[in-house]
Amino acid sequence: MEIIKVEGLSKSFGKLQVLENVSFNVNQGEVIAILGPSGSGKSTLLRCVTHLELVDKGSISLTGMNMVKDGVYAHAEELRKICLKVGLVFQNFNLFPHFSVMRNITEAQVHVLGRKKEDAAERARILLEKTGLSDKAQSYPCELSGGQQQRVSIARALALDPEVLFFDEPTSALDPELTGDILKVIRDLASEMMTMVIVTHEIPFAREVADRVLFMDGGSFIEEGPAAELIDAPRLERTKAFLARLKRG
């Protein structure tokens, strides 16, 4: 079942064309890794698909519902329903610093989904256990390591029960020694058939966990294929050069 369909997406900031005629699809339970150099449009694409940026042209549908069709957006109530189907985990955590871990995870459940506080707290406890943070429920973000904060961000996104989870370079703000726990959580989600789109520079991880890899350059996808096939034997010289540079580290 196709859960995401993007067709002919374009986005500019002033005279800067960031996305140009981008099209791709994601099936339910599929994990997609998006690779590409800085400035190629990866983060902007995620922000457009999660409705944090407005597109100039193109269409986006999620679970069969049109967020935007030929550049025209759905009405407000329809957009709200669609946006609840997606979650986004940012590079830099974006936790509320004055809220405890528990409140960071329960706040949107109560005010966006309308859950009772006790039900939201129970959902939060389950997710904190899942992400290895059961003992941090009453801690504040400033008391956590970067890796712990990112795991709280993942738990917060999952708390709204999204059908698709987007990750924007989830380990880029972390020291290499802190990335392992984040990647383990994502691996576990993949094993549970969570539909995910992951912008990452972690090539071995992308090869292991992704079903397909899309390579972006200059605001467009220029090569795609099964993860191991594209990473081990890319067809285009541009893709080869990018992967070789990353592998040299």
Automatic annotation (TrEMBL):
The UniProt record lists the keyword Signal:
no
Q: Is the ATP-binding keyword given for this protein?
A: yes
Spell out the subcellular localization from the entry. Answer: Cell membrane
**Gene Ontology MF terms:** ABC-type amino acid transporter activity; ATP binding; ATP hydrolysis activity
Q: Which UniProt keywords apply?
A: Amino-acid transport, ATP-binding, Cell membrane, Membrane, Nucleotide-binding, Transport
Which SMART domains does this UniProt record tie to the protein? AAA
Q: Which InterPro entries match?
A: AAA+_ATPase, ABC_ATPase_HisP-typ, ABC_transporter-like_ATP-bd, ABC_transporter-like_CS, MetN_ABC_transporter-like, P-loop_NTPase
Please list the residue ranges annotated as the ABC transporter domain. Answer: 4-243
Protein name (record): ATP-binding protein
